[in-house]
């Protein structure tokens, strides 16, 4: 037991590694929201994972090691969260431009469509995130349609109206 206490105290006092990301880093919030969307339907496909990694790599220009640490930090933050508010409020502070928040929503839709399927649960998660980010229903739908068109998928008629 003493060893466990010493190990715990060591983790509290150990210097943080430079590749760690602060909990309030907007990149961690973004990754956490991506995981919330990917996990919404109960299955994260390989295509979703690859699209997610590609989007992060393009957006943040991180080395593979730093990207791995960012994904880990975001996944841990997302698994500890009880709602989306913490992440959306972090992002709203950093994305003061409405176009940036709309673009973020478009990225979430790109992840949804990566596996060629869209579920009502994914719709609901993105609807909640959009609402908390202050993105209008019109812009949310336009981003969904754009992502569907890019993915080459036909959009499900009425799914959007049924999710609200």
Automatic annotation (TrEMBL):
- Which InterPro entries does this entry report, sorted A to Z? DjlA_N (IPR007791), TerB-like (IPR029024)
Supply the Pfam families for this chain.
Answer: TerB
The residues forming the signal peptide are none
List, for all copies, the residue spans of the domain called Co-chaperone DjlA N-terminal. 28-144
Which Gene3D superfamilies does the UniProt record give? TerB-like (1.10.3680.10)
TM ranges: none
Protein's name in the database: Co-chaperone DjlA N-terminal domain-containing protein
Q: Which organism is it from?
A: Neorhizobium lilium
């Amino acid at each position: 037991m003493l060893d466990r206490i010493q190990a715990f105290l060591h983790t509290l006092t150990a210097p943080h590694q430079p590749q760690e990301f602060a909990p309030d880093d907007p990149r961690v919030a973004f990754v956490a929201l991506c995981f919330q969307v990917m996990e919404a339907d109960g299955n994260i496909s390989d295509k979703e994972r690859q699209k997610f990694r590609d989007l992060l790599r393009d957006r943040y220009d991180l080395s593979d090691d730093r990207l791995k640490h960012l994904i880990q930090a975001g996944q841990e933050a997302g698994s500890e969260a009880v709602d989306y508010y913490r992440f959306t409020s972090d992002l709203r502070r950093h994305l003061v431009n409405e176009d940036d928040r709309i673009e973020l929503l478009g990225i979430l839709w790109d992840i949804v469509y990566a596996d060629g399927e869209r579920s009502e649960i994914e719709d609901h998660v993105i609807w909640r995130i959009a609402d908390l980010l202050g993105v209008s229903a019109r812009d949310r739908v336009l981003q969904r349609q754009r992502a569907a068109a890019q993915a080459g998928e036909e959009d499900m008629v009425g799914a959007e109206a049924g999710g609200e």
